[in-house]
Amino acid sequence: ASVYAADQGVHTAENGSDAGDQCVVYHSAGSYTGYFYCLFTDNKEEKINAIATKIEYIQRKEKMMNKLIELKNLTKNFDDQQVLRGINLDIYEKEFLTLLGPSGCGKTTTLRIIAGFEEPSDGEVLFNGIEISKLPPYKREVNTVFQKYALFPHLNVAENIGFGLNLKKVDKTVIAQKVERMLKMVGLEGFGKRDVTLLSGGQQQRCAIARALIKNPKLLLCDEPTGALDSKTSKDILILLEKINQQYGTTMLIVTHNNAIRNMVHKVIIIKDGQISEDYENETRLPAKSLEDL
Questions:
Q1: Average model confidence (pLDDT) for the chain?
Q2: Distance (Å, rounded) from C-alpha 92 to C-alpha 110?
């Protein structure tokens, strides 16, 4: 028997004539209304996993209709050196994507321009269709997680996470509630009063992620978030980011050297010599639960 998916369910077909090894998407008024997918293999678990992945991919493409960020012909020069050479990139709401490439290729410069820490020499940065190239970072609905954590050593975990809300004079009760939610989200329940300097590297990065998310940014940028961590902790942090994207719909762009992320993201962008050399959708993305066994 073959296995196929239709109307969001997984079923079996008695023979190959009932289904083809393909995916057919039916359109009605411009939206996805149903799909049919079949994979012929002797391994039933492999069939179901492959079908579930395809269903998730189609559902995601249906939901991600809103373009959040547009980079148009971005260039960046530092003195006489051209670091970016015409970057064009679209980022959609709820997307989880990565910029990969060797050191010095321009991926971190691209991230810093989106964040507002650098201005492009030429080109446009659009946020929901509005040009923001000259808008300072604090006025953008974007937050950044850094490789070095950038935590305040004189503040405890909860105070670090709530720092941005304190600056905005948000009610302390509201801050406390939001901090508790963030601690639970990143797996640091009970750590609120801890000294951040006594945390492990992975725990400090979880604290930094919570601080970046507490203001509910439209886009979370992560600049080498696992660069200072060992391989096991790096995998844990990437799995955490994937789960946050999946459960809360937070749009994320991750700059990293860690090729393991290719298995997790919706889209992979490879930069070489200041240009995008590859840009492809990941139709075979593994869910976070599967990645824990890699």
A1: 81
A2: 16
